[in-house]
From TrEMBL, chain A:
Keywords: Cell membrane, Membrane, Transmembrane, Transmembrane helix. Belongs to the CPA3 antiporters (TC 2.A.63) subunit E family. It comes from Quadrisphaera granulorum. It is a multi-pass membrane protein. This is Multisubunit sodium/proton antiporter MrpE subunit. GO terms for cellular component: plasma membrane. It is found in: Cell membrane.
Automatic annotation (TrEMBL), chain B:
This is Multisubunit sodium/proton antiporter MrpG subunit. Keywords: Membrane, Transmembrane, Transmembrane helix. Residues 121-140 have a biased composition (Low complexity). The keyword Transmembrane applies. Residues 116-140 are annotated as: Disordered. It comes from Quadrisphaera granulorum. It comes from the Bacteria. The lineage of its organism: Bacteria, Bacillati, Actinomycetota, Actinomycetes, Kineosporiales. GO terms for molecular function: sodium:proton antiporter activity. Belongs to the CPA3 antiporters (TC 2.A.63) subunit G family. The keyword Metal-binding does not apply. The chain crosses the membrane at residues 6-30, 65-87.
Length: 198, 140
């Protein structure tokens, strides 16, 4: 078991008050609120703080255990790759949609992940949906396996390997950005993320 | 037309074309899953391009540009989630025809589970609750 056994399911008032780890969430909600109002006047900011506190109290979110700080270089790299992937995927699917001729066949491929952390699996699954020709059909969390629906544009024999390679690259980028150091120091980062939520 | 107008026009037109292609894909593609491909990728990029085109026109109004940024951000975050949930619903309800799949690892996995090759706390394949990391098979 992990050292991060935070009592997260505390009911009652104590569990509902925001704690220090929720500060980023609160800050993000206030920023979002100000963005929606298009103003940073004191009334809006105070209103945003009140709304954020109310939301955290009414809809408490499970708190994640302490995570390493995201890496700036990794994040920029991830964003650049994502932009490129999104453009490539969009053009590819758009072309498949409008080109004359039959629609390509498809396949459901199992792609194993290296990380067992809920947060990393979620991030990878989400981003994999944006890369060319794949769609997440199911996720098996205990084995860390993504089941992806893929449009087969090349050799049907190689579709499995192609998809697994692209998922692997995406996960490496996600880990490099969000959990720096996990790639070098063994892969099984943060089983504790999931355990700490129980 | 000023330079900004031209840039806007290019963004708006290319975004609209992508959205059109997404719509055509929705009509032409044969099943739920292939349609979700059309509904998530060209559609998202199309919307982002349209937003960029609008932002160029509204640039002096920072508040409006921030609002557009949020629209794009939430589209990026929610579109994959929505498509995943639809795709999974299609899989679990079993209504999506699987006969044009050239490969179906998920079906294989379910058959293996049914045959008891992946022991789990509760039987349902690929949807078992995640509270028993112990049930992890060796390696890929």
């Amino acid at each position: 078991m992990s050292p991060h056994e935070a009592p997260l399911t505390t009911s009652g008032l104590r569990g509902r008050l925001p704690n220090r780890r929720q500060l980023p969430l609160l800050a993000w909600m206030v920023v979002f609120w100000c963005g929606l109002w298009g103003s940073i006047s004191p009334v809006v900011v105070v209103g945003g703080v009140l709304v954020a506190l109310a939301l955290v109290a009414v809809f408490p979110m499970p708190t994640l255990p302490p995570a390493p700080l995201p890496s700036l270089v990794g994040s920029v790299g991830l964003a650049a790759y994502l932009t490129w992937d999104l453009v490539r995927a969009s053009l590819q699917v758009a072309w498949l949609a409008v080109r004359p001729g039959p629609v390509p066949p498809s396949a459901i491929v199992a792609a194993p992940l290296r990380s067992r952390s809920d947060a990393m699996i979620a991030a990878t699954a989400e981003l994999v949906s944006l890369v060319p020709g794949t769609l997440v059909v199911d996720i098996d969390v205990p084995t860390g396996t993504l089941y992806l629906h893929a449009l087969v544009t090349g050799d049907p024999e190689r579709v499995g390997d192609d998809v697994r390679a692209s998922v692997r690259r995406m996960e490496e980028r996600v880990l490099a950005a969000l959990a720096p150091g996990s790639l070098s120091g063994g892969v099984d980062i943060a089983d504790d993320v999931r355990e700490a939520r129980r | 037309m000023s330079v900004a107008d031209w840039i806007s026009a290019v963004f708006l037109l290319s975004g609209s074309l992508l959205a059109l292609a997404a719509g055509i894909g929705m009509l032409r593609f044969p099943d739920l899953w292939t349609r979700m491909h059309a509904g998530t990728k060209p559609q998202v990029l199309g919307l982002l391009l349209v937003l960029a085109g609008v932002a160029v026109q509204l640039a002096p109004d920072a508040g409006a540009v921030v609002a557009l940024l949020f629209v794009g951000l939430f589209q990026l975050v929610t579109a994959p989630v929505a498509s995943h949930l639809l795709a999974r619903a299609g899989h679990r309800s079993g209504v999506v025809p699987r006969d044009h799949l050239v490969q179906d690892d998920l079906r294989v996995f379910e058959l293996e589970c049914a045959a008891g090759e992946h022991p789990r706390p509760s039987g349902s394949p690929a949807s078992a609750p995640a509270d028993e990391p112990a049930a992890r098979p060796a390696e890929s």
